[in-house]
Each structure stands twice: as C-alpha cells, then as structure tokens.
Fold this sequence. Notes:
- Helix 5 (88-107) packs antiparallel against helix 9 (168-203) and helix 7 packs parallel to helix 9.
- The protein has one domain.
- By secondary structure, it is an all-alpha fold.
- It has helices at 2-31, 39-61, 66-78, 81-86, 88-107, 110-116, 119-131, 138-155, 168-203.
- The radius of gyration is 21 Å and the shape is globular.
- The chain has nine helices and no strands.
Amino acid sequence: xxxxxxxxxxxxxxxxxxxxxxxxxxxxxxxxxxxxxxxxxxxxxxxxxxxxxxxxxxxxxxxxxxxxxxxxxxxxxxxxxxxxxxxxxxxxxxxxxxxxxxxxxxxxxxxxxxxxxxxxxxxxxxxxxxxxxxxxxxxxxxxxxxxxxxxxxxxxxxxxxxxxxxxxxxxxxxxxxxxxxxxxxxxxxxxxxxxxxxxxxxxxxxxxxxx
Length: 211
C-alpha cells in the first residue's frame, strides 16, 4: 500500500512539473524577440519523440524483445485497420488542440492560460456523463461549477475608467486576447472529448495503451 501511495504522489508531482514547465516554456518561446518557429514543426517533432517513447515502452512490456515489438505493432495496427481508423478521431483532435495551444499562448500570459484551460475538467466531466454514463457526485458538480465561475471572472473584462476611449491599439490587443480565449475554449472541448473517447476505446479491448 505504501509503494502504491508513493507511486501515486510521484506521478502527481511529475505531472504538475510537466504541465507547468510546458506552459511556461511554450509561452516564452512564443514571446521571445527572435524568429518565430512554425507550430506544426514543433508538433511534428513532439509526436515523433512520443512515438519513439511508446515503442520503447512496448519493448519493455514485451520482455525487451524486438521481434515481439514488431509482432505487437503488426497485430494491433496493421491487422486491425478498423480499430486503427477509430484512433484517427482522438489523434486528429489532439493535433487540433496542440495547434490551438500555440495560438492561445501567443496571445495570453501563462497564468491566464493555465486558469482558463482548466475548463477541460468541466468538458471531460460532461462528456464522461454522456458517453460513459459515469455518475458524478453533487460535491464534484459544485466544484466544477465554481471552476466555471472562476474562469468566467478571469475572462470577464475589467473596465478602465482612466481610458474610456478604445484606441486602435487597445482594440487590436483586445481582439488578440479574445482570440486567445476562443482558442483555449475550443482546445478544452477537444481535449475533453478526445480523452473520453480514447478511454472508451481502451475499455473495449485489451490493447496496450502505448500502441
């Protein structure tokens, strides 16, 4: 029980560090005064690295046998074209989500983005109820409701009495901020649906999560 608890806390700590560092580094890379890179290039490199990591983890699961890795990939991907096509839905949504994150962090600061992006908890809960028939307790619904209120307060504009006139520069900044908020909202919806849909796929068969 102690080992299980320790693993849980370690996993939580790693997740927090990964999420925080991702947002901060991504925001910095989009605002630093240098030549901008293409988000599609960064996403392609990230997916390539994730593919290598997944193959490595499958290799560990198959007693470190290259032949078994090839057999697993052939069995689960090439011999199951219908199941592979089903994974195209969450894959496409995650690709859209990743591109939207680059857009959002180009126009929003890291703190605002991090708070607003927590709406994915609400969308995930809603999709879990409708797609997986999960039951959510009243206290959990209340927590999600408070989360939605908190995000709304972050998005809600604060009037500036000292500058009532909306200059062209202020208007452009406001439009960019709204574009960032819209990107976060759409990203939260795609994240919630893709996560629940992927969970539904995993529950239909014994396929390794790394494949």
